[in-house]
Design goal:
With 258 residues, this protein is an alpha/beta fold. The protein has eight helices and ten strands. Helix 2 links the parallel strand 2 and strand 3. The relative contact order is 0.18. The structure holds 2-amino-2-deoxy-6-O-phosphono-alpha-D-glucopyranose.
């Protein structure tokens, strides 16, 4: 796992955009995430679209997860969120942006459909945030490390964390979701996880330096042959091998990609 420590959230976003840009230029299938952390990365990609002719026309975008029971046009559905935060500001057609269908009477079939779609899509790069309890997508602690796309119940802490998007009301947060599984996520060619702020320090330490464990779903990145974790100083505070990561970062061979 490659760990890049950057001074602040803006530098994390810039580094993430540097890594994502070649995938966009190649017209790849991109895995994108919601949550507040990737928003700064999306702003930087939008800036590059406007100012540096970074075109998304040939790309497709696959979302990680979706609430169950919200209409697709609900402003807090993840389908609406990615439109608002990224895709309506760049030149990707809506028909090339995909999410699990959370507005369905048959979520089991919707999960299987999305898993099959992802098997065909071959996502080249998957952007990830991390929950304070170590979840990625909505794979809460004790998720199977080999799980496919499926229905999950949110942990009460995740419901509390996400209530800020629902007028602070936990009762309005859907308790069931569809999420790419940890096995699904692992099929992407390159996993790029971004984390910023002190509230993520424990999760970052656990995912990078803790044991591989379903109790920290993000630790599954330890199994992936190409995983990059980009953190700011605050989120890196719990790492033991801080100095080693800086040293390794500085030793990179010229021209060697991330
Ligand atoms: C949600 C999303 C995750 C995201 C997490 C952290 O639970 N399903 O994909 O990583 O929130 O979000 P934030 O970046 O806002 O802390």
């Amino acid at each position: 796992m490659e760990i890049l420590i950057r001074p602040d959230a803006a530098a994390v976003a810039c580094q993430a955009a540097d890594i994502i840009e070649p995938y966009v230029r190649a017209g790849a299938a991109l895995g994108m995430a919601t949550g507040s952390t990737p928003v700064a990365t999306y702003r930087e990609l939008i800036r590059r679209h406007r100012e540096e002719s970074l075109n998304f026309r040939r790309c497709s975008i696959y979302m990680l997860d979706e609430y169950l029971g919200l209409p697709a046009d609900h402003e807090q559905s993840y389908a609406a969120t990615i439109r608002r935060e990224l895709t309506e500001h760049v030149d990707i057609p809506d028909r090339q942006v995909f999410s699990p269908n959370g507005n369905t009477t048959d979520p089991v079939a919707a999960a299987a459909d999305y898993e099959n779609q992802l098997l065909r899509a071959r996502v080249s790069m998957q952007l990830l945030g991390v929950g304070a309890n170590g979840h990625i997508g909505f794979n809460e602690p004790t998720s199977s490390l080999n799980s496919p796309t499926r229905i999950k119940a949110l942990h009460p802490q995740t419901v509390a964390d996400n209530a800020r998007f629902f007028d602070g009301r936990e009762d309005l947060v859907p308790k069931l979701v569809l999420t790419q599984g940890l096995g699904t996520i692992q099929r992407a060619g390159h996993l790029v996880l971004v984390a910023t702020g002190a509230a993520k320090a424990d999760a970052v330490a656990a995912l990078a330096e803790g044991p591989l464990s379903a109790m920290c779903p993000a630790s599954v990145l330890q199994l992936h042959p190409h995983a990059t974790v980009i953190v700011d100083e605050a989120a890196a505070a719990g790492l033991k091998l801080h100095e080693y990561y800086r040293f390794a970062d500085a030793q990179k061979l010229p021209g060697q990609g991330y």
